[in-house]
Write a structure and sequence with these properties.
The chain has three helices and no strands. By secondary structure, it is mostly helical. Helix 1 crosses helix 3 and helix 2 crosses helix 3.
Length: 64
């Protein structure tokens, strides 16, 4: 039986956003793609989910 310890894509992205923010890096979808290896379409979808649920906020267009 497979162990269910894998994080969701949204949780992975949230961790990456928090990590970049803590290192005072600008958080964009491109930096998230480089950091996580996820496709931009996936990142866009999950960023929308995180925004809608109040987990992150948009500082300016394309920057979180």
């Amino acid at each position: 039986m497979r162990e269910m310890t894998r994080k969701s894509t949204a949780a992975t992205l949230l961790d990456a956003v928090q990590d970049l923010h803590a290192r005072e890096q600008i958080v964009t979808r491109e930096t998230l793609a480089e950091l996580t290896g996820l496709k931009l379409t996936t990142i866009d979808d999950r960023l929308g989910y995180l925004l809608d649920n109040g987990k992150i906020r948009r500082v300016q267009r394309g920057v979180f």
